[in-house]
Design brief:
The complex is a heterodimer of chains A (379) and B (393).
Chain A: H1 7-22, H2 30-35, H3 44-53, H4 71-84, H5 90-102, H6 106-118, E1 123-126, E2 141-145, E3 148-159, E4 166-172, E5 183-189, E6 195-201, E7 207-218, E8 223-224, H7 230-266, E9 268-269, E10 272-273, H8 278-306, H9 312-338, H10 349-361, H11 366-377
Parallel strand pairs in A: 1-4
Antiparallel strand pairs in A: 2-3, 3-7, 4-5, 5-8, 6-7, 9-10
Helix pairs in contact in A: 1-4, 4-7, 5-6, 5-7, 7-8, 7-9, 7-10, 8-9, 9-10, 9-11
Chain B: H1 4-18, H2 45-57, H3 75-87, H4 97-109, H5 112-123, E1 129-132, E2 148-151, E3 155-166, E4 173-179, E5 189-195, E6 201-205, E7 215-226, E8 236-237, H6 243-261, H7 270-278, H8 283-312, H9 319-342, H10 358-366, H11 376-387
Parallel strand pairs in B: 1-4
Antiparallel strand pairs in B: 2-3, 3-7, 4-5, 5-8, 6-7
Classes of the chains: A alpha+beta (379), B alpha+beta (393).
Pfam families (chain A): Acyl-CoA_dh_1, Acyl-CoA_dh_M, Acyl-CoA_dh_N
Family (chain A): Belongs to the acyl-CoA dehydrogenase family.
Domain Acyl-CoA oxidase/dehydrogenase middle (chain A): 136-201
């Protein structure tokens, strides 16, 4: 398969681009909800519109009422989300939770997927324990209790955890904290007793929670996939999520870069457009190169994942790390080249910097993923 | 195209039958590279057999039309062939500036007569070409060139000097930019073709910091260049005084080639090989290697996207400049890291262990990557101007 959009994908890109620029625009969504101190950090009305566009269930199979598309198509939508800094539960619900639910039995899929596809419900995932992403180590425990399980532990960086209707929780059902095996995934509904959220607003105005499970009682049918066999599902979810986060990061990078290049063509100093200065031209050209490459490897990773290639996991880490480097450069150069106004809240470039910071941390930063590349390559 | 799976199976079977095991080993030194030409000799029978099999099949230039010595493969088929060759580690059967640079220019600008003659010779490895672009005092700034061809009716008399002409001392013919109009800076250059054995042509190797000298100075002293070598075979490509169009087109191919030869087209992480070499890696060095591998693996994905886009006509015409810039910078970085991993062993300049100082000579050689074919700074200028559309760039 060639590494560019085919006709259908180009049409999807066009549609998503238009929709996000109109309905998901910064003034209409991010600033609107932020300035009202919205407890969810995103608008449910927009999420319903996502559903009407067919985005919410794009990774859900056609048999389950979705569009049966792949990571590549989800990446197209995420890139536009990133460009417009559109706040939504798309990454958590439609990519991460949807990927986990692919592995669930019929009953669980029938219970959770219609609400996701229709946009009536939003989901999230609870993986991290602590400030850094270390999914190799899962401490949260689920012990057998009657016909079900009893969940105890704490999860951090749960995206919009307090407003999610269901959380996919990775917990340990056997073995030691560092074991690969012994993991089970659970679908924990919003109204579960003994679950509490300490919701915090993050630097990018999104909401995340420290979620506590203090003996949450779960039925046996809360299990997604196999008991003790959840690592594989968790990994599938992580790979899809990392590629998705990379795609959103590419959008953030492109949005910041476009703003900056436009600014270089408008701002005058010393009687010249600042874009005439070679010092800035070279930095802009270098930035362009890095962003293009980050975009290419993200598309490649998605293509490998959709094609079932065993290289997808490695390329997902390469993409996540490369995007972190490129998008980090894009937002830093963006703020610097804008000069003083780049530091003002009124101007959007700073919002890109904030979003990038949050995305970089989500599902592993560039150091985590570079180290993974080394591990997987055998050094 | 034909059924891709069937084509792949055919290619696989053909390679199995025709690519000798010795030709599936990595290239170790210059003698492992076959350049063709009038005075060419083969290093061994395997090299000869592999070259001849490919030549007869059209696989020295797989995507050129059959009429000009190619195999007439579609881009998709060409990609499959490259993938299959790379899968078994097959060496290129023929390396040639004729294939990489002159060929694409002739396919685009050449007359039918030129294509029949020169493309077939290139594909069959009969004539080895070199490129005469740069001059002392005009490196990346080609329009300032001084070599002059005086119009004498049916021929020009060319005087001047070229520099950085790779392998000029071993080449049979040269494709050369010559000023034919002193008044017009851009539209006064002609893209000429002539025999290096012509009277008045001489070459002198330039010794580099690596101790090697693939490059030459080339002097032209009253060289007679015919305007025609026969019916429909002009002694120049494109139009007289419009050589700049050809040169620009061709520079795109050169940049593509250099970027392809650069750091990014290797799809496996270098860290693994480095660990085998060094044993234990210092944690900080391991981290540097890992960050490099992220960049290099990402660049290889870009390389694939770039080629797919170029072949489908979707690519931006200035994209080769970006590939060249990043590819050559990465290649320099790769060799800096290899020197660090190699430690004191990598410093050995002449020992047998290092194959005559390969690590350090290669490291020094890569420093030219971001200079030759247009400096990194010139590449950044082109990106600024032609892709980002920045003012006054």
């Amino acid at each position: 398969m060639p590494l560019y959009h085919d006709d259908d994908q180009a049409m999807l890109a066009e549609t998503a681009s238009q929709f996000m620029a109109e309905e998901g625009a910064i003034a209409k969504q991010l600033r609107h909800w932020r300035d009202r101190n919205c407890k969810d950090g995103f608008g449910h009305g927009l999420w319903k519109q996502f559903a009407e566009m067919g985005f919410t269930g794009m990774l859900v199979s056609e048999d389950d009422g979705g569009l049966g598309m792949g990571s590549y198509e989800a990446g197209i939508v995420l890139e536009e989300i990133g460009r417009n800094l559109t706040p939504s539960p798309f990454l958590a619900s439609s990519v991460l939770a949807a990927t986990a639910l692919k592995h669930a039995d019929d009953a669980a899929r029938q219970r959770w997927l219609p609400g996701l596809v229709s946009g009536d419900l939003v989901y999230s995932v609870a993986i991290d324990e602590g400030a850094k992403h270390r999914p190799e180590r899962i401490k949260t425990r689920a012990e057998k209790s009657g016909n079900g399980f009893r969940l105890t532990g704490q999860k951090d960086f749960v995206l919009h955890g307090a407003s999610a209707d269901m959380l996919v929780v990775a917990a340990r059902t056997s073995g030691a904290d560092d074991d690969a095996d012994g993991i089970t995934l659970f679908a924990v509904p919003k109204d579960a007793a003994n679950m509490s959220h300490d919701a915090v607003r993050l630097v990018d105005s999104s909401m995340a929670s420290h979620t506590k499970f203090e003996g949450v009682e779960l039925d046996g049918d809360a299990v997604i996939g196999e008991v003790d066999g959840g690592r594989e599902v968790l990994n599938a979810m992580l790979t899809a999520g990392r590629i998705g986060a990379a795609a959103e990061g590419v959008g953030v990078a492109r949005g910041a870069m476009d703003m900056t290049v436009d600014y270089l063509k408008q701002r005058k100093q010393f009687g010249k457009l600042i874009g005439e200065f070679q010092a800035l031209q070279h930095r802009a050209a270098h930035l362009y190169s890095e962003v293009e490459i980050a975009r290419a490897v993200t598309m490649k990773a998605a293509q490998l994942l959709d094609g079932g290639s065993e290289k997808a996991d490695l390329m997902a880490s390469v993409a996540k790390a490369k995007v972190a480097k490129a998008a980090g450069l894009a937002v830093r150069e963006g703020v610097q080249m804008h000069g003083g106004i780049g530091m003002t809240d009124e101007y959007d470039i700073g919002l890109y910097m904030k979003r990038d910071r949050a995305l970089q941390e989500f599902l592993g930063d560039m150091y985590y993923h570079a180290s993974r590349v080394a591990d997987m390559s055998g050094y | 195209m034909s059924d891709p799976d069937a084509f792949r199976a055919d290619v696989r079977a053909w390679l199995e039958a025709n690519c000798p095991p010795e030709m599936r080993e990595p290239v170790r030194d210059e003698a492992d590279v076959y350049w063709g030409g009038r005075n060419a000799t083969f290093k061994n029978d395997a090299q000869k057999a592999w070259f001849e099999a490919c030549r007869d099949k059209g696989y020295t230039v797989p995507e050129w039309p059959k009429a000009y010595g190619g195999a007439g493969l579609t881009p998709a088929e060409g990609k499959i062939l490259r993938q299959e060759m790379s899968r078994i580690g097959a060496r290129p059967p023929l390396s040639s500036f004729g294939i990489w640079m002159l060929g694409p220019a002739l396919l685009h600008f050449g007359t039918e007569g030129q294509k029949q003659r020169f493309l077939n010779e290139i594909a069959a490895g009969k004539i080895r070409w070199c490129q005469g672009y740069s001059e002392p005092g005009s490196g990346s700034d080609l329009v300032s060139m001084q070599t002059y061809g005086e119009d004498k009716g049916d021929h020009w008399v060319v005087n001047g000097q070229k520099i950085w002409t790779s392998y000029a001392d071993e080449a049979d013919w040269i494709f050369c930019l010559v000023r034919t109009d002193k008044e017009n800076k851009y539209q006064g250059i002609t893209f000429m073709l002539f025999d290096m054995a012509s009277e008045g042509v001489s070459t002198k190797p330039i010794k580099l910091i690596s101790g090697n000298s693939p490059f030459c100075e080339t002097f032209m002293d009253d060289v007679k260049v015919p305007k025609s070598y026969g019916e429909d075979i002009p002694g120049y490509v494109g139009q007289i005084n419009r050589g700049w169009d050809v040169a620009k087109y061709l520079l795109g191919h050169e940049r593509e080639m250099i970027s392809g030869a650069g750091g990014g087209d290797r799809t496996s992480a270098i860290g693994a090989a480095m660990k085998r070499m060094a044993g234990e890696l210092d944690p900080v060095l391991r981290a540097q290697l890992a960050m490099f591998d992220v960049d290099a693996l990402a660049y290889s994905a870009m390389g694939e996207k770039f080629l797919d886009e170029m072949k489908s006509g979707k690519g931006h015409p200035a994209q080769p400049n970006m590939m060249k810039y990043v590819g050559t910078e990465l290649n320099k970085q790769r060799h800096e890291l290899m020197m660090s991993v190699g430690g004191s062993r990598a410093l050995e300049w002449e020992s047998e262990d290092t194959g005559g100082g390969k690590p350090s000579r290669n490291w020094l050689r890569t420093k030219a990557n971001s200079i030759e074919g247009g400096t990194s700074e010139v590449m950044l200028n082109v990106i600024s101007k032609r892709i980002l559309d920045l003012p006054g760039a």
